[in-house]
Amino acid sequence: MLDLLILGYNGRMKKIGILTRDCAGVNAAIRAAVRTAVAAGLEVSGVLRGYSGLVDGDFVPLDRRSVSGIINMGGTVLKTSRCELFLTAEGQARAVASLRSHGLEGLIVIGGNGSLAGAHVLASVHGVPTVGVPATIDNDVGGVDLAIGADTSANVALDALDKIRDTATSLERIFVVEVMGRDCGYLAMQVALAGGCEEVLLPERVLDAAAMSREIQEGHARGKKSWIVIVAEGKARAQDVAGVIHRRTGLETRIAVLGHIQRGGRPTAFDRILAARLGHAAVEALAGGQSDVCVHFKGGRTELLPLGTAGQAKACDVSHDYHLLKLLA
Ligand code: F6P
Asked: What does the pLDDT look like over 88-104, one tens digit per residue?
């Protein structure tokens, strides 16, 4: 049975670490990686607080029991943080020394392109066997169709948006809703399309404020009184967009900034299953002797791509979905 689960396991590696960033589905990925590793006879340590814990040598043993009951939890049970020190040669040397002194022969890094860029440095510069797992609400990991967490955050934002629509419709108001996504319009596009919104402002598209305001005014004249405009945080602030609409149309507007609620919440079934597949595939790749690669799901199967690619932000193609949204609005 193990041969089936751990396809290329060479039996040489004895102990691995897992380091994480946070978003829904990360805990499910930790669980899958730990249980796959334990089934293959590997010892596993969790790295506490992301790269800060790696630099400081802050590890916790993980076994089958320690990951029970976390599959449905948001965030990361390992905690996480930003670590400026890891960007320096000194920080990286300390991280490598921590791994060695703790007997960790390989590392799985679960996170967005920043975390995966760090993983690429560990693998390519310091020779640490490292495999990445894409997990970010921004869904901007280079070469990856869908990262763990993106589906849950779209659903969390959509739930909030549906509630805002109740008020927008009842009071016949214009709402400008700001969603996360860093410099990528993926999350904003998803939320706008699924929420049946009238407009979405994306980093990938030039904003024609005059045309948008004219459309709102013409709609208003026809009797369409409520309007929801989604703004990707990487494009503009909701406050500023609402100000522009008000100045150009004279119509009353309200704003909502969804913020960090989009990064939390119980992972959807989709994200849990993706996490199970990728957590398992990451251990399989690492134990099978792969390094400097990122696992991802494409065309119905798990595949590997270079960590150097995954460590970069991808360009998000939103043009088809944008035109679909405008056709259906
Ligand atoms: O990368 C995930 C993300 O939530 C982005 O969408 C957002 O821009 C950023 O992180 C917020 O970072 P912080 O929690 O450090 O403010």
From this structure: 999 999 999 999 999 99
